[in-house]
Structures are given as structure tokens and as C-alpha cells.
Amino acid sequence: MESSAAISFEVNLDYPFEEAIERLTAALKEEGFGILTRIDVHTTLKKKIGKDFRNYAILGVCNPPLAYRALEHSAEVGLMLPCNITVESDPDGGSIIRIGDPGAMIKGFGMDADPVLAEVGSAARSHLERVADALKA
Q1: Residue 45 near residue 53 (C-beta atoms within 8 A)
Q2: Per-domain boundaries in the chain
Q3: What is the pLDDT of residue 112?
Q4: I need a surface site. Which of 87, 127, 133, 137 has the fewest CB within 10 A?
């Protein structure tokens, strides 16, 4: 699994943008995640500032049992939710998916000393690693 600045891991797919999102959605569902939000950056930039940009989406994903456990323990963790995943068209063909690492986010916010939040972050990371592995298969 490739790492991007130690806050995410990425998967390069030979599939076009929309198909990559469809495959990602199916892999997320298998791990108990759903997509809460989708920001189409290419459309937004064109509309707001008239700039062309490649297909690029930011997806906010959530695993409800993990989110509930974290939020019940610390409302402040909501600042890190939902988990973000980006999908973009690769200029060389195919698509690039970058999955934010929840464990790194917990650590980056200084919450890794809390055993409950550290465990939730680790569990979320494990689920998302399996998503990445499923996309590669």
C-alpha cells in the first residue's frame, strides 16, 4: 500500500473516474461504510471561479458503529468526521483513490493517548485498508 505524506494510503486503478467511484462504493459497503457527502471539485471550481479541473471528488464516508462509539466517548472527535476519501482522474489514465488514515488523524489531533479513540482509529484504519485491498484485487 502506497503512502501519501503518512496521512493516507492510495490505490491506482485502471478504471475511469465514475467506475472507480462505483467500485469504491461497493468496497466501502462491504466494510460497513456509506458515503454521506460527495463534493465534485471539478464542477464546483468551474461554477465558482470558471476554472477547468480534472474529475476530482471528495467523499465523506462513515461507519456508523465506529462513529457512534467515538462520538459517545468524545464529542470533539466530530471535528474529524466523516472520514475523507478523494477520487481523481489520473492524467496518465485510470483513477487515483486516496484514503485518509483515521489512525493518523487521531494521532495528529493528539487524541491517541485516549485508549478508546486509539482503538476506534485503529479499527477504522483496518476496515479502510481492507477497502483498499479489495480495490486492488
Answers
A1: yes
A2: 2-136
A3: 86
A4: 137
| Domain topology for 2-136 | TATA-Binding Protein (3.30.310)
What is the overall mean pLDDT for the chain? 93
Residues 77, 111: contact at Cβ < 8 Å?
A: yes
Model pTM score: 0.91
Strand partners, 63: none
Joined together, the cell numbers standing for residue 122 give 485503529
Return d(Cα 37, Cα 60) in angstroms, integer: 5
Residue recorded with cell 462513515: 62
Locate 18 and state its grid cell.
465514475
The type of residue at 17 is F
User: Could you tell me the pLDDT band of residue 5, with boundaries at 50, 70 and 90?
Assistant: low
Residue type, 87: V
Q: Which residues pair with 32 in a beta bridge?
A: none
